[in-house]
Amino acid sequence: MEKIKNILAINFGGIGDEIFFLPALISLKKEFPQAKITLALEPRSKSVKDLTEVISDLILVDVKGKNKYFELLKLIFKARAGHFDMVISSGGNKFISVLLWLTGIRKRYGYDAGALSRKLLTQAVRLNKNQYACAMYHDLVTPVTDYKTELPEINVLPAEKIPDSVLIHPGVSRMSVQKGCIKTISAQIWAETAELLIKKGKNVMLAGGPDDNDCIQIIRKYLSEKGLVFEDYYGKTRSLKDLAELIARAEVFVCSDSAPLHIAVALKTKTFVIFGPTDDKKLIPQSERVVPVKAGDNCPLKPCLWERRLTTCDRLDCLKITAEDVVKAVCCS
To answer: Which site among 19, 27, 90, 105 is 20 to 30 Å from 231 CA-CA?
Structure first.
């Protein structure tokens, strides 16, 4: 392949989606070490750049805002002005190929969404959703590199582990909750989980982002009223990089199906993650270091979220997980 100096990658979604996308970008950087990689993404996910050195620049595209089509038009103009040699985009929508064609970039790679994508793209890649999300995204770069990066890699130095530490990050994004996507246990169950871990001699640490404030306050109040001692890092991790450094120091990480989970995967920290309506086989690697904690509800529709429906049901039997369930998983593994 001719010399590639400037690559545009496009991936819209939350911060978790951007972390899933990192292995593809890492393999591109290995194949084209002198190339500059620019990532077009949503503004809410721009902090991914703090976690990696493979991304040289960002183009922010607010595709969730009121001016979605104007934002995409700006992206096309920026792509045309950017002198890119190659563009790679995720997304299964058939109009992605039209977007890439309009950029005028000669080498265009995306998912096969039908005859139009096969005509407009340099190569249309088969979209296989029935695999770990990192592998799904990595398929996009297989036409241009033989490198295979299995997991995300982030720019955090190795740290000495805090003895007997269990870091709890209970929250999920406020946007997912507002959309009716309930993916974690209640704040009360999280508080009881922390209590049981403390009583088992664990050094419990508590962290969270701005979206987790209500949940964190309930946990704080519960533990304080019982006179239990824990390390409170809420409000002290002011960036994704700060959180990553804290996760690196923890012996064990306990979290929801959310972006911090994928940071822990990249750092190879032993992680226990609450799974309810989503598919753990697509969201975590098959590894002893990452353990899904699930209810024994035997719901025939599980996993349903994103597979069969766009919101969770009212019963949420899949999230009837007790504090004892979580602590048993953590202490017996």
So the answer is: 19
